[in-house]
Amino acid sequence: MRIVQIIDSLEVGGAEKMAVNYANAIVGLVDFSGLITTRTEGALKAQLSEKVTYLFLKKTKTIDFGAAWRLRNYCKTNRIEIVHAHSSSYFVAVLTKFCYPKIKIVWHDHNGLSEFISKKETIALKLASFFFKGIIVVNDQLKKWAQKELNCSNVIYFPNFTSVETNILNQTSLKGTPGKRILCLANLRLQKNHFLLLEVAQKVKENYPEWTFHLVGKDFNDEYSAQIKALIVSKELEDTVFVYGSKNDTTNIILQSDIAILTSDSEGLPVALIEYGLLSKAVVTTNVGEIPFMITHGVNGFMVNRKQADEFYLHLVKLIEDETLRNNLGKALYKSISENNSEKAVIAKYLNWLKK
């Protein structure tokens, strides 16, 4: 098979990371593995295998026939059979199919707003889905929605997977005291609910002032970002909460941390949680998306109801006060992630599905 992944950006994010993961993982297992970014490049480009054929499409508008033609030429030159379009990149893939009908399109829905899926604007997607060979989803709710709302019956669930990056230059040095760092690996987006994190941070500062919070993820410099930064100042958390923006050396960052958290209101299947687990970090997370299928409360992490700052704080304190508990939960999470979210198992199922 000859397969290319398409993604709109290579900035650090869950969908973007998965596009890179798929491109790298199938190298050597298929005849051709490529990756195309449509609108912007980014830090994740450095994580692409040298054996993955790469193209930056330089798409500048929603309906960009020039970009579609460049994609068509790429597909024709490299004899592409399957275009694996991640998130919103499906649109340029469908435009390309009009001028190069030989390609088959697989759409990968990474939408983290699964709880609010009924409110999505779906007209363009519904029309595009007539041209999909298949749809990959990251949770059961998205699967049910796609089967009901879209015009493609071939819908399958594959869990996200990732691997520990060892070839990325370690550039980030976290602030705060070693041994007392709490990490949140999430882009600054509304559904990640950093407001809850700040509520918890305020309580931690009062009782465990030596512990610090480290927010790593893309900063869109929008209203949400401004509100978070303003609250850090107004709550006098400047020496407790640190914002780093997007970073590429996530393995290095996680290894500098002692507890890892997610405070999201909604999720698909967060790649960050898999990364935490692969590095044996103890976690506290909200019970959204596919997280309840990954975390068994009290066994391989702590899981609390969303928007519940007091509940989140109490479980975080358990980890702050008990290093042995941190180690045990971290080891248990590593074991479960290794068994259920391994690259080898997912890719084998993926390639078998594409062959059908």
TrEMBL record:
<protein>
    <submittedName>
        <fullName>Glycosyltransferase</fullName>
    </submittedName>
</protein>
<dbReference type="GO" id="GO:0016757">
    <property type="term" value="F:glycosyltransferase activity"/>
</dbReference>
<dbReference type="InterPro" id="IPR001296">
    <property type="entry name" value="Glyco_trans_1"/>
</dbReference>
<dbReference type="Pfam" id="PF13439">
    <property type="entry name" value="Glyco_transf_4"/>
</dbReference>
<dbReference type="Pfam" id="PF00534">
    <property type="entry name" value="Glycos_transf_1"/>
</dbReference>
<dbReference type="InterPro" id="IPR028098">
    <property type="entry name" value="Glyco_trans_4-like_N"/>
</dbReference>
<feature type="domain" description="Glycosyl transferase family 1">
    <location>
        <begin position="174"/>
        <end position="335"/>
    </location>
</feature>
<feature type="domain" description="Glycosyltransferase subfamily 4-like N-terminal">
    <location>
        <begin position="12"/>
        <end position="161"/>
    </location>
</feature>
<keyword id="KW-0808">Transferase</keyword>
